[in-house]
Amino acid sequence: MNHYSDFSEFFPCGGIKAGISLKQFQYFPPEDRKKIVSLFELNPEQIVIPVQTHSNNVVICTKSGGISNTDGMITIEKLVLTIQVADCIPIYLVDPVAKIIGLLHAGWRGIANGIVLNGIQKLIQLNSNPQNVIVFLGPSIRQCCFEVSLDVALEFDSSFVRNTRKGERMINLQGIVRSQLTDSGVNQKNIIDINECTFCFGEKYHSFRREGKSAGRMIAILGWK
Ligand SMILES: [Zn+2]
Question: Whole-model pTM?
């Protein structure tokens, strides 16, 4: 069993290291971030760690260390961006032309409140052209398993909500993200979706929905070698 998945190959530009720790990787904050970053041969001294709050806040990072109340980071520096997830979507952003990277923690709340749009806007602030940006949607809970209340369903366009015969509302967060990205100027063909559901793949991923409060977390990382 692998302890992590390496997504670096999805970014066809030299030096990008992207990946995520898996369920077999022991979740033991804060040392686990240093360990996973070292496994990707990146510098543990350069780690950025946000205190995630399901906000829509995206920060342009200039130095390593902690950041309060943040669910997205963008940087032009040689930093290693990290977030933790267990059902929410880790969204990896890479502009290989402007040499900018970004990592977003995107659950339904953040997505409804515009974290994806904020992320693209921060990239543009750093002179990125969204047409050049490559986006990778990591393992996360998908429409097969993501039942939401009526209140949550009403936050989104009904085309992304499927009603089951039992009257459950199943939401397609990845589809919503994809449409927000293309609306922001990202090229459809530059959006890569791993297409694995954290709830379905119980051997491989932690899932808050499946495991509840005792659920561990996967650490998503993104940096330049
Ligand atoms: Zn599923």
Answer: 0.97
